[in-house]
Amino acid sequence: QSVLTQPPSASGTPGQRVTISCSGSSSNIGSNTVNWYQQLPGTAPKLLIYSNNQRPSGVPDRFSGSKSGTSASLAISGLQSEDEADYYCAAWDDSLNGRYVFGTGTKVTVL
Amino acid sequence: QVQLQQWGAGLLKPSETLSLTCAVYGGSFSGYYWSWIRQPPGKGLEWIGEINHSGSTNYNPSLKSRVTISVDTSKNQFSLKLSSVTAADTAVYYCARAPSTVRGVIITKYMDVWGKGTTVTVSS
User: How many whole angstroms separate alpha carbon A3 and alpha carbon B62?
Assistant: First the structure.
């Protein structure tokens, strides 16, 4: 049972901007930094954004992250067909002696 | 370029113990936490737990009673054991490197290098 809530799906046409929300609480997003992962079908997740808005080397600047209070967002601008994947937010949660929690996941479809 | 190579038994019977190992190649073993994450078929990601080079561990409270994560620094390897498995433990299991920093009370932890995953099926 995920403690970070995401919409199950999002979609857009090539070139559009898509935004995915991630809703948490004071013990996770409200207290710690947020990360985003991209998972292409049949592959391991890949780190997309860390520390709220930082991109690892090699991640296109079409991907951007933001955080406000107990919510976070991932934006994909200039949507491309290869962006069709599952996206997960995640953060450390201070409750229950600490644990790392993932969001419920959002399937992005490029129409 | 850091790479993680993982292996372990892929088919278990209920009540058996799942055992997986992850080897770290091409980078420093110290200075990081090393994590296990799983993904049931068609479902989302679940963090199992982590260990650092000193052997300090953190476990998911929902699995803590059945999980043991250990480290062998001489081989740059870490391992997962999950006891008393049931069909609900059927999943793809991933190992990952987890850089972690604490600034004041703010914890930054993320998984930046992942293994390819091991499919574990529990069936009688």
Answer: 13
* Residue A97: burial class (beta carbons within 10 Å; 0-12, 13-18, 19+): exposed
CA B34 – CA B113 distance, rounded (Å) = 10
pLDDT, one tens digit per residue, over B26-45 is 989 999 999 999 999 999 99
Q: Which residues of B touch A (CB under 8 A)?
A: 35, 37, 44-47, 50, 58-61, 94, 98, 105-112, 114-117
pLDDT at A1 over 70: no
Give the tens place of pLDDT for each residue, B55-109.
999 999 999 999 999 999 999 999 999 999 999 999 999 999 999 988 888 999 9
Cβ proximity of A101 and A93 under 8 Å: yes
Residue A96 at interface with chain B, using a CB cutoff of 8 Å: yes
d(CA A67, CA A65): 7
Q: Closest to B44 (Cβ–Cβ): which among A32, A47, A88?
A: A88
Residue type, B46: E
